[in-house]
């Protein structure tokens, strides 16, 4: 809602002859979040931070599948009490693996959101810096119905963030 209002105000002001000198810019935040070197660095950092837990989870999943496969082959020849015991054990192991997977996903999402918060702060500073340096009167983020390429300053922001 806020962006639609800003876009409306910008278009209204731009259409008035009195404001013919108004300089407007537009930034594609999603493009910056995909291409900024800080995003790539952040992704590598998260991957490294969670690699041991991810590898452990993969090993647990593989072990579970092997045990399930072995159980399905041997289930017909087992005594009922032994089969029930192994089924219960496999069921508990399945629940444990699912819990570990959910916890890992949640921890990764929390850290990713922390990293994105820092990146958004850097983006805001870069937008402000470029806007002041180039004399923009108004800079809009995504949420705009249409923006001409001539007012798109996304590449300048990426350059400011360190993208070559």
Arrangement of strands in the largest sheet: 1-2
Average pLDDT across residues?
A: 84
How many structural domains does the protein architecture include?
A: 1
Helix content: over 70%
CA-based shape:
rod-shaped
What series of H and E elements makes up the topology?
Answer: HEHHHEH
- Compute the gyration radius: what is it? 27 Å
Number of helices: 5
- Decide which structural class fits the backbone: mainly alpha
CATH architecture: 2-Layer Sandwich
Low-confidence region ranges: none
**Beta content:** under 5%
Q: Separation of termini?
A: 34 Å
Query: How can the largest sheet be summarized?
Result: 2 strands, parallel
- The fold-level CATH name is Protein Binding, DinI Protein, Chain A
What is the highest CATH level, the class? Answer: Alpha Beta
CATH superfamily: Skp domain
Strands, count: 2
Describe this structure in words.
The protein has 164 residues and is mainly alpha-helical. It has a single domain (2-161), classed as 2-Layer Sandwich (Protein Binding, DinI Protein, Chain A). The protein has five helices and two strands. It has a two-stranded parallel ribbon with strand order 1-2. It is rod-shaped and about 85 Å long.
Brief summary of the model shown:
The protein has 164 residues and is mainly alpha-helical.
Key attributes of the depicted protein:
164 residues; 2 strands; single chain; two-stranded parallel sheet; Protein Binding, DinI Protein, Chain A; rod-shaped; mainly alpha
Topology:
Blueprint lengths: L1 H14 L8 E3 L2 H7 L1 H38 L5 H54 L4 E3 L13 H8 L3
Parallel strand pairs: 1-2
Helix pairs in contact: 2-5, 3-4, 4-5
């Amino acid at each position: 809602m806020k962006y639609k209002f800003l876009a409306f105000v910008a278009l209204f002001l731009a259409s008035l002859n009195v404001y013919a000198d108004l300089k407007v810019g537009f930034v594609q935040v999603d493009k910056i979040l995909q291409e900024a070197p800080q995003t790539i660095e952040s992704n590598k950092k998260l991957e490294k931070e969670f690699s041991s837990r991810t590898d452990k989870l993969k090993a647990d999943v593989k072990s579970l599948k092997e045990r399930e496969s072995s159980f399905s082959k041997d289930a017909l020849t087992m005594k009922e009490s032994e089969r029930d015991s192994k089924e219960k054990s496999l069921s508990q192991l399945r629940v444990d693996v699912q819990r570990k997977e959910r916890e890992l996903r949640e921890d990764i999402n929390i850290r990713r959101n922390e990293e994105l918060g820092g990146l958004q702060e850097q983006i805001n500073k870069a937008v402000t810096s470029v806007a002041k340096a180039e004399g923009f009167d108004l800079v809009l983020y995504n949420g705009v119905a249409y923006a001409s390429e001539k007012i798109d300053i996304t590449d300048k922001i990426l350059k400011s963030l360190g993208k070559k």
